[in-house]
Amino acid sequence: MGVPGGKAPVLTMSLMVTGNLLGAGILALPVNLGPAGMIPSLAGIVLVWALMLFSAYVLADQPELSQEGSGGLPAFFGSKLGPSAKWLAVAADMVIFYGVLTAYLVGTSTVVNSLFAVPVPRWAVTTLYFCAVAGLTGFGMAILRRCNAVILLLMGVSFAALIAMTLGHADPERALPMRPEFLPAAMPVALTAFLFHNLVPTLCREMRGDVRAVRRSILYGSLLGLAMNVAWTAAVFCALPMEGQGPATLMNAFEKNLPATVPLSILLDSRTFTDIGLVFALLSMSAAFLANGTALLDFLKDLGDGLGRRPGHTTAWLLAFAPPLVVSLVYPDIFLAVMNLVGGVGICLLFGVLPGLLTLRKAQGGAKLLAGAALACFAFILVFEMGQELGLTHIKPDWEYWAQFLE
Q1: What is the DSSP letter of 391?
Q2: What is the pLDDT of residues 141-178, one digit of tens each?
Q3: How far apart are CA 244 and CA 219, in angstroms?
Q4: Any stretches that span the bilayer, and where are they (predicted)?
Q5: Which residue has the higher pLDDT, 265 or 68?
Q6: For residue 199, with 0-12 CB atoms within 10 Å meaning exposed, 13-18 middle and 19 or more buried, which class applies?
Q7: Quick one: pLDDT at residue 70?
Q8: Residue 189 burial by Cβ neighbours in a 10 Å radius (0-12, 13-18, 19+)
Q9: CA dihedral in degrees (372, 187, 214, 224; nearest 10)?
Q10: Distance from CA of residue 35 to its chain's centroid?
């Protein structure tokens, strides 16, 4: 990845950012945002991109993260904000890592079992996929570094094909109805669609602490991700009816925790689209599983070092991958639910609240106001999601409103 004796190119690092933020989030985004309508959803996506860009810039500005053996983000926040911040970061990181790995497993098995007449039960599909991707983590990031360009090229081609085929069924009138009051309930999943922040320390090291170059890599890579998320969301909104007879609707996908490619494949009734959708889902979620799985192994080993008892490789592997497998087998229909938990709790805490507090302690003037506004946004999403999880807040899709557009 790096350049011996020099820093990695901005373009290479930008593509790494884009590759990291494309995972289960982009497949969940149109479905979870669906009940809000397209226009509020696109506004929410841009707002979330700006918030996540701000928090990534905060991390990129920290010289400690460019040093080898820095101990990771929990140790960094502990050194800046105290021991309680360290353990809060540890808890948030665990929610993120275990949550996204579970989402990749259930998301992949959902796509395969919903669209293909596979001769094995769903638990077998989940287990086979798990064995493949969890086994590949034994190669660490080496396999992704060698294959990153090819993976991104295939993802780009398959994504463009999906958009082109979806636009053939687009109806611009579907973009007009809206219920913006539902938007807060969908913001956590939007956060997961812009998650690449665990990569920032690697960017800092690969670019030899050049903050301007790191910022440019983050900006260009996240802008490409923003364009893809906006294009995908708009295409799905205009192609799929919100309500109607049969399973090819956004509301049905929302109720059943399905990725967007499932109702689209039913609507288009095209084997080509279904196959391309499977390729895109497998590439995006498998690459993300490898990256996050490898990072989780390193995280557990660093955590063990801090506790004075570093786990062996086999123990670390079991601690990392057994819980997501068990959860995905016991609860196979939690794709959107687990994404909400990851975004609304894990990401808000680790990449929203903590960076916001760090900036507030140092910033002055306009920068302090900006940090306060970002912190308030993340805190609102966090409190709202906690309320949803605890049953204290209840925002549900407005079924009566969308029923008038029944198709």
Answers
A1: T
A2: 666 667 777 888 898 899 999 999 998 888 888 888 88
A3: 40
A4: 12-33, 39-60, 87-106, 126-144, 151-170, 182-200, 220-242, 276-300, 312-331, 337-360, 367-384
A5: 265
A6: buried
A7: 59
A8: buried
A9: -140
A10: 20
Q: What are phi and psi of 166, to 5 degrees?
A: -70, -40
Supply 249's token pair: 């609707």
The domains of the chain, with CATH numbers, are 24-396 (1.20.1740.10)
How far apart (Å, rounded) are the C-alpha atoms in residues 59 and 130? 32
Q: If you average pLDDT over each of 32-36, 81-85, 402-406, which comes out highest?
A: 81-85
Based on its alpha-carbon atoms, the radius of gyration of the chain, rounded to whole angstroms, reads 20
Task: Determine the Cα–Cα distance for residues 185 and 120; give it in Å rounded to an integer.
Answer: 35
Q: How far apart are CA 41 and CA 233, in angstroms?
A: 8
Between the CA atoms of 179, 184, 188 and 189, what dihedral angle is there, to the nearest 10 degrees? 0
Q: Is the pLDDT of residue 363 over 80?
A: no
User: 78: number of CA atoms within 13 Å, CB side?
Assistant: 16
Asked if 344 and 385 touch (Cβ cutoff 8 Å), the reply is yes
pTM of the model: 0.88
| CA trace torsion 117, 123, 128, 134 (10° rounding) | 140
Q: Which helix (H) or strand (E) holds 273?
A: helix 271-306
Question: Could you tell me if residue 288 is left (phi over 0), alpha (psi between -120 and 50 degrees) or otherwise beta?
Answer: alpha
Is the dihedral angle over the CA atoms 312, 99, 382, 52 positive or is it negative? Answer: positive
213 vs 208: CA distance, rounded Å: 9
Please tell me what DSSP assigns to residue 343: I
Other C-beta atoms lying within 10 Å of the C-beta of residue 57: 17
Single-letter amino acid code for the residue at 219: L
- Tokens describing residue 177: 């109805």
Neighbouring C-alpha atoms within 13 Å toward the C-beta of 293: 33
Indicate whether 37 pLDDT > 80: yes
- Please spell the DSSP secondary structure of 188-236, one letter per residue: HHHHHTT--GGGHHHHHHHTTT-HHHHHHHHHHHHHHHHHHHHHHHHHH
In this predicted structure, the answer to whether residue 20 has a pLDDT above a threshold of 90 is no
Could you read off the pLDDT of 214-256 as tens digits, one per residue?
999 999 999 999 999 999 999 998 998 887 777 888 888 888 8
Residue at token pair 């490619």: 261
Q: Range with the lowest mean pLDDT among 19-28, 47-56, 266-275, 347-356? A: 19-28
CA dihedral 354, 358, 363, 369 (to 10 degrees): 20
Q: Which of 99, 23, 13, 16 is nearest to 286 (CA)?
A: 23
